[in-house]
Design a protein that fits this description.
The chain is an alpha/beta fold. The chain has helices spanning 6-14, 20-24, 32-52, 112-115, 123-130, 158-162, 167-181, 196-207, 269-279, 330-333, 344-354, and strands spanning 70-78, 81-89, 99-105, 133-137, 184-194, 214-218, 234-240, 287-292, 295-300, 309-314.
């Protein structure tokens, strides 16, 4: 789930609670006032359900050692908030061998459980295949369930940005906890994310360059003012040319409510690619390393500290995770499917794995 206005999300959620039936029964000629009142009732009902929903139950303590495969849920206090995250340990994990670690940040309006759904993103399957420990953090949310969460990724998004939530401090705490609990390779800590989560990955590259080796952002451009990383950080950016949320050439798309409380005038993909080429002091011209029907990838490989900067572009897919799947349902079926020209997961893991 990407960057979306709360009002838009509530209308989408109405389908799951059966409220869409009421809307569908209204004749097209009905008065706007009646429509508005029904929509408000729908929103109230969905908000009630979100407020009643329980938070995922923690099944482990941040002080416990993790020695076996499985899913571990944590709830920790940080800066006056209760923060949640889920750690997935692959079957191949051996406490005697340092494992790579990847953080996967959900999109704006999503949550950690949504990002971990394998039928949409396939991240758990990929982590199991490759032996990565994968962390699904939860953004800050108005609801105790953690739903409708956002990340403070600089100039975006929502309540996390407006309340200046300390998401960088939260990431630091998660890294400290996990590296104390498990045998993690300190040279193989990475971050990826979708949309607002991809923007959060960029903020991590800007402010935690001494900890994270590389980041991969899918559909989320760099909107961090005054970014000055202390160390080179390799960057992979994946984006569709026809993204209707975070426009390829900058700005918020037509299907994002341009409400300053939620979004911003997003940096373009070309500007993001250029900025990280300059920050990593890359030389020469980017090489076209992939050129297939519907997608291409360009790579700067001669950058400071052995870092790389890579851009993969799909022609279609809109605001989605290439190679993944969008949720089902009648409304979603009408929307453009994700691009299958490349697999975001394959590109991300190959990029991280190529770094020295």
């Amino acid at each position: 789930m990407g960057i979306i206005d709360r009002h838009f999300f509530l209308k989408f959620m109405a389908v799951s609670v059966g409220a869409a039936t009421a809307l569908a029964s209204i004749d097209a000629s009905a008065e706007g006032g009646l429509r508005g009142r029904i929509r408000e009732k729908i929103k109230e009902r969905v908000v009630e359900k979100l407020e009643e929903a329980p938070a995922p139950e923690a099944n482990a303590s941040a002080s416990d050692r993790i020695t076996t495969a499985g899913d571990y849920y944590f709830s920790i206090p940080h800066q006056g908030l209760t923060r949640m995250y889920r750690v997935h340990v692959p079957p191949s994990y051996n406490p005697a061998t340092p494992a790579p670690l990847i953080f996967a940040f959900h999109g704006g309006g999503g949550d950690m459980e949504y990002m971990a759904r394998d039928e949409y993103y396939g991240l758990i399957s990929k982590a199991d295949q490759t032996g990565y420990v994968i962390v699904f953090p939860n953004g800050s949310s108005h609801f105790k369930s953690g739903k409708l969460a956002t990340w403070n990724a600089g100039e975006c998004c929502g309540g996390a940005r407006d309340n200046n939530v300390d998401d960088i401090g939260f990431v630091k705490q998660m890294v400290a906890n996990i590296t104390r609990q498990m045998n993690i390779n300190p040279d193989k800590i990475y971050a990826t994310g979708m949309s607002n989560g991809g923007m959060m990955a960029y903020r991590i590259a800007c402010e935690l360059s001494g900890t994270f080796k590389a980041v991969a952002s899918v559909t989320g451009t760099d909107n961090v003012p005054g970014c000055r990383p202390n160390n080179p950080v390799s960057v992979l950016h994946i984006h569709a040319q026809n993204d209707t949320h975070v426009l390829f050439n900058g700005g918020a798309g037509k299907d994002v409510f341009k409400d300053e409380t939620m979004v911003t005038d997003f940096t373009s993909v070309p500007d993001t690619f250029r900025m990280w080429k300059e920050r990593n002091s890359c030389t020469g011209q980017p090489a076209r390393v992939l050129d297939v029907e519907g997608a291409y990838c360009d790579l700067y490989s001669s950058c400071s500290g052995g870092s790389q900067v890579k851009l993969c572009v799909t022609e279609t897919g809109g605001h989605s995770w290439p190679g993944g799947n969008k949720p089902g349902g009648r409304k979603q079926m009408k929307k453009e499917p994700t691009s299958k020209a490349i697999s975001a997961n394959d590109e991300i893991w190959a990029f991280f794995g190529s770094l020295k």
